[in-house]
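One-letter codes give the sequence; the integers encode the fold. A sample entry reads:
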Amino acid sequence: MDTTYDAIVIGAGMAGLTAARKIAEVGKKVAVLSRGLGTTNMSTGAIDLLGYTQNKLVSNPEDEIRSFVRTSPRHPYAILGNGDDKKALEILKDSIQEFLKITKMAYVGDTTRNVVLSNYFGTYRPSCIIPLTMKNGNLLEFTDTKLMVVGIRGYAEFNAKFFAKSLHHTVNSFFRQNTLKEVVPKEIAIPSLGKDKEITSIEIAEALDTEYAFSRFLEQLKKSIIDIDVEIVVIPAILGYKNWVQNHTILEKELGVPVFECLSLPPSVPGQRLQQILENAASDVGVEIHRGIQVLSAHIENNECKTLETIADIYRQTFEADVYVLASGSFIAEGLYFDGKKIYEPIFNLPVHSPNRNNFSERRLESGKHSIAFAGIQVTETMKPIIEKGDEITNLFAAGSILANYDYISEKSGLGVALTTGYRAGMNAINKL
């Protein structure tokens, strides 16, 4: 394996693959090093830019992000434009447009408008840039609507009866200007997967990529709605890995009504689709994606990263590049560690900014925002990690959930921050090369 590159990106999620693709697009030799698939693979597959501020649902993400830039200067969105809200929004829009382009219109959305989607529990989540298969699922647009919810026999992750009751209550209780007249649950079987065994979303999606299983699935759906005057059909997120857009189009044409997939739980088929879209787009411009490689440490001299020490199985290797991008994620992806007393970043030994660091252990079960969520790496306006007293590692950039000063869980901003900061880190890395 070649171990010398123009740029090396640590992490194969949304932030890392976005940065890698940007750098490779200008003809640079780029490698992505990752232990596994990362958390993007387990995500809902929808891009949340900003869902909540001060526990209130955000209608227009652009307006609220503009406010963030003015009032929260260390938030990742503010750093994008170095405190300039117009520049921050310009970068945000550019990154979104490039993302929509690489999806080949499999995603839709508008940065000035959040939609509200239902999950497997029949509750709701705001999002902005969403898979095409979910575009008819905006709960804010339901008015005296009758839905049919499709359950799959043997698929225990999605209970159609429970979902129907929960969604009916959710819409009619929390969105009083919108109403659901009735939500009718129906159960069907997926041919070739058996009737009695328990099946997974992965097995169903793989089956529906075949013409035989999908055509039989469609036949059962047609029979199910013959005597039910439904206006929309709701299905779990199982429409395939390769043919999901095509399958969705066929369903709507053949059934004669809008169809939408719900936001799913891990293992998430839409999350895996998104991961594949990102990997394909990176590979198409020459990015080399190496999985199963753990980066152990970095060799730093005179505020510059020279090499990375890695291990794969029992084999150790040294990788070298002119620039590096750290997109290794937060606690879930082990880009950050918390040992009960201290939070640390394991590769570059970067200082971790964390408010109220002395009371993490005592507040583990506290509801609402937890201060540990704001922990992370602080960066300059060029996305370079700050090491001490304003110093920086001159050829290192950081992006994604490893960044400090925001709570992607309560804000519902995770993939939005990952996409935009990954895009910005990639552009800045190009300028360094």
